[in-house]
Amino acid sequence: MIEFRNVSKTYKNGTHALENINLKVEDGEFVYIMGPTGSGKSTLIKLLDGEEVPSGGSVIVNNVNVGRLRKSKVYLYRRKIGVVFQDYRLLPEKTVFENVAYALEVLDMPNDKIRKRTREVLKLVDLADKSNVKPRELSGGQQQRVAIARAIAKRPAILIADEPTGNLDPSMTDEMITLLEKINREEKTTLLVVTHNDVMVEYHPKRTIRIASGHIVNDGTHGDLFYKQGLGTIKRPAAQEKEKDKEVEQTLEVKEEPREKDKMTESEAQDQVISEITMQLDAIKELSEGDRHE
Ligand SMILES: Nc1ncnc2c1ncn2[C@@H]1O[C@H](COP(=O)(O)OP(=O)(O)OP(=O)(O)O)[C@@H](O)[C@H]1O
Ligand SMILES: [Mg+2]
Q1: Separation of CA 231 and ligand 1 centre (Å)
Q2: Residue 273: which CATH number?
Q3: From residue 222, how far is each of 72, 217, 232 by CA, in Å?
């Protein structure tokens, strides 16, 4: 189960991205997250996958307090979470099959199991016949499906998709959502789907959490007025305005990782995977040492 308890997030520059969020998502649910640009959707997801820590309150996922995880343990925790990024982040020099298999090699799975699971998920996303082609030979929608296959290969308990239909035409959008429904049904994966796509939500109605200005303004299956009003980000309190420039300077000094790399080179992507493996091994070592002390 996912639970947000009185969660707030204020970024270093003083932006209140989320305020007092209370939320429960049960295992196996399929939930849309909607809201105007800048309302806090991605922040909510980053708190969920451990990229950001809450400024107040707690984020609990299957009894793990995510904000309290040590950095080395975040990578272990992320094995339970699959994230599909809008820009796919596929490895260009690897085939479709290799892209998916790579995500499992990182987990140190035996080869025969990797091949079996890779075939299985490629079939699920209807790309079995594209196994041996490179990502550049695929359409945008097909690349997105590879990204989904890769995210679900490790059987994450939770799959988060940020705008999975952002680049698709209406018929592909319908196919995509049908695929996500299938994953939810057949793999029993909890789905959180960030979307701006009103039509999709209308044709495939589900629980919809609507966020505006960092608050949940509606949580239900039916539409509401708040979303249509397009409320913006919470305004900084006047007292904070004076500190603004100073804070901005400080924020600039702390160079943060770009949120979404447009075109990650093969070697950059490999570096990232290798650093994840190293951290995972460290974390496993740390865990097993902890066991020995107990
Ligand atoms: N790393 C950051 N540092 C400072 N402020 C941030 C950071 N990331 C997001 N924000 C701010 O927090 C607020 C919420 O941003 P968030 O990315 O969560 O919005 P969103 O709902 O995902 O928007 P979109 O639909 O455009 O993706 C915005 O005002 C944004 O400018
Ligand atoms: Mg966003």
Answers
A1: 14
A2: 3.40.50.300
A3: 41, 12, 21
Residue type, 74: V
Instruction: Determine, yes or no, domain membership for 42.
Output: yes
Scored b (16 or more CB within 10 A) or e, 103-139 reads: bbebeebeeeebeebbeebbebbebeebbeebbeebe
Block means of pLDDT (10 residues each) for the chain, 294 residues, are 97 97 96 94 92 96 93 86 85 96 90 96 94 95 92 93 82 87 92 89 92 95 45 39 44 39 54 58 53 44
Q: Would you state the structure tokens that stand for residue 276, as one six-digit string?
A: 């994840």
Distance (angstroms) between ligand 2 centre and the Cα of 245 equals 24
* Rounded Cα gap, residues 210 and 87, in angstroms: 24
DSSP of 177-217, one letter per residue? HHHHHHHHHHS--EEEEE---HHHHHHS--EEEEEETTEEE
Residue nearest ligand 1's atom 16 by CA = 40
Which of 16, 19, 33, 43 most suits a substitution to test ligand 1, by most atoms within 8 Å of the C-beta? Answer: 43
Ligand 1 first shell, C-beta below 6 A: 11, 13, 15, 17, 35, 37-43, 233, 256
Q: Count structural domains, the chain.
A: 1
Amino acid at residue number 8:
S
Q: Tell me the pTM.
A: 0.74
